[in-house]
Every structure is written in C-alpha cells, then in structure tokens.
Specification:
By secondary structure, this protein is mainly beta. The protein contains three helices and 19 strands.
C-alpha cells in the first residue's frame, strides 16, 4: 500500500482551515481465481452432451481442465486498488461559547476486489470485468460537529430564579451527510435456464441509463427498472461493476444539557437529553436489486427497485447527573 498526500493549512484567529489531496494505491492485493473452470460455453457444446439424457450436458467435472475435480480457487497477489480524494476541513477552538469542526471529502475508490481473496472472473480480463467502484465507496462525505453555549440571558436580569431557568444551557451535536454505497442489480429466472453454459454466471443486461433524477424517485422505484433486461442465452450480460448508488445518509444527532448550580462551588446537577436521528428523518438503507424474469423476458417481481429497509428511527435518552 502506497499513501501520499499534499496539504495546505491556514489559521485565521481561532479557526484552522485545511485543504488536502490524499491518495492511496494498493498493489499485489490478495485475490483468487478459479483455475478449474469449464471451458467457455462448454455446457452448450454437443460433444459434452450426456448420452443417457437428451438435451442435458454431462456433469462439469467431466470436462474441466483438471478432470474429476471441482472448482480450484488459486489465491494470488495480483489485485489492485486506487483511492484519490479532495479533503477540506475547518476547526474552531472553543472560544466565546462556540466550537465547531467541519470535514468534507470528495473521493473515489476503484478496485478489482472490495475485500481480501475476492473472486475474479474465470474468463475475461480483470480490468474489464471486475474493476470498478469498491462496495464501500462513498463519493461525498460531509460531517459537522458543534458545541454552543447559549448566552446567559438570565444573569443579565439580576433576578436569580430567572437565571436558574434560562442560563447554563448547552447545545451540541454531529450532523452527517453522506453518499450511499454502490451496487449492481442482479437477476434470476423463473424457468432456471442456464444462461452462460459456463462456470461463471451472467450479469444483467442494461439498455439505457439506470439512474433517475431525485424528482422521479419514489418508494417503489428508486432507479430506472425499465432499462434492465433478461440476458439472452449464450451471453454474459453487459452490466458494469457498481453502476448505481444506494440511499445516502442525512442524520442529525443532538444533545441538549442544562447545568443547575447547587449551594457549594463546583457542585451542580446536570440534566442532559440526547437525540439520535433527532428529526426522526426516514433514512432508507437498502433496495430490492434483484430482477426476476420469466421465459419471455418479462420482469415479474413487483418489488424490484423498491426500498427494503431503513436506518433506526429517532432514539431519545435522558440523564440526570450530580457533579461534586
């Protein structure tokens, strides 16, 4: 793994600004390939037909390169990954009752395998079949943290009971806006037809732009399902790696606390409310990305393209603490 970065930093009073280019290259990463895959389209070859069953090929182990054996996964160190990013941040030290930190990253992660010993194609070039955005790629990430001491309005009135109610309040939180993770829709068939006649299965066929504008998305249609078609027999399909991105994150975690001074110096009661997903904003976490085609190529799953799960709803916890 080779890491490199270039950063410019500037301080303006109590706030520090950073702008950086950060990159990372992975070479000779651990992957695996099946070296005992049957020849391409071998199940469709008449010479591999089962003489005892018309229209049925022999079992794969009869015509593999190493006959009599099943799949043999050869682990090797040929994988690659590339990460490039623009990273911007601003951090203000606590002063005059305010502290904040902001971090934004615009990045891209490309690889032939998103994890160790990931499987590669048995028939095609890795860069053309397996290379694409990693399944953990998130192009945009913005995180904002903050602490704010509410001005002590009560103390200015000179009436102590008012100060007990209005003073010593603090608001803090973490706000996150992040892109979703990438995926590629898959498919299965009602009739169970062998599409490729080979060890590796087929990808779905794409005939148009699968992305939808935000205004066109609905709960039941998160991407353009009309452009996905059944891959014909004798083909491997044309869908690329990670051609779509799932729902992102729009989350606010907030904390509101109140200090109530007691009689002795340094002794007080703290009341604290913490709200995770404070606005109870629905954040979808996944969608049905598997089409189901009948023998005529008609997509029959009514939930294809619909949301299937969501992040937790708002959670509130309360605490009361005596400090002395």
């Amino acid at each position: 793994v080779m890491n490199f970065s270039f950063c410019v930093q500037h301080q303006l009073r109590t706030t520090t600004f950073d702008v950086a280019y950060v990159g990372s290259l992975g070479r000779h990463l651990s992957v695996q390939r099946n070296i005992n895959a049957i020849p391409l389209f071998a199940r469709f070859d008449p010479k591999n037909a089962d003489p005892t069953q018309t229209g049925t090929p022999l079992q794969d182990n009869f015509f593999r390169p190493h006959r009599g054996y099943g799949n043999i996964n050869d682990r090797m160190f040929t994988g690659t990954s590339n990460y490039h990013s623009l990273q911007v941040s601003a951090n203000r030290r606590f002063a005059k009752g305010v502290q904040f930190g902001l971090a934004y990253t615009w990045s891209k992660t490309l690889t032939v395998s998103s994890g160790d010993t990931g499987g590669l194609t048995s028939y095609f070039a890795d860069r053309s079949w397996n290379y694409g955005p990693a399944n953990y790629d998130q192009p945009h990430t913005l995180v904002f943290n903050y602490i704010y001491d509410v001005p002590r309005i009560g103390a200015k009135t000179g009436f102590r009971p008012v100060g007990w109610v209005l003073d010593n309040w603090q608001i803090s939180g973490i706000t996150s806006f992040m892109s979703g993770n990438p995926f590629t829709p898959g498919f299965n068939t009602v009739d169970g037809q062998d599409i490729t006649g080979s060890t590796d299965g087929a990808r779905i066929t794409v005939v148009g732009n699968p992305r939808l504008a935000k205004s066109q998305k609905t709960f039941n249609r998160t991407f353009n399902t009309d452009v996905f078609k059944r891959t014909p027999q004798g083909s491997f399909g044309n869908a690329g790696v990670s051609i779509l991105y799932g729902p992102g994150i729009n989350n606010w975690d907030l904390a509101i606390s109140k200090r109530i001074p007691l009689f002795s110096e340094g002794c007080y009661v703290q009341f604290r409310t913490e709200m995770f997903n404070a606005w109870n904003h629905t954040q979808f976490a996944g969608q049905n990305a598997t089409a189901r085609f009948d023998k005529n190529g008609v997509q029959t799953d009514p939930n294809f393209g619909a949301y299937t799960s969501a992040a937790p709803p708002r959670i509130i916890q309360l605490s009361l603490r005596l400090m002395f």
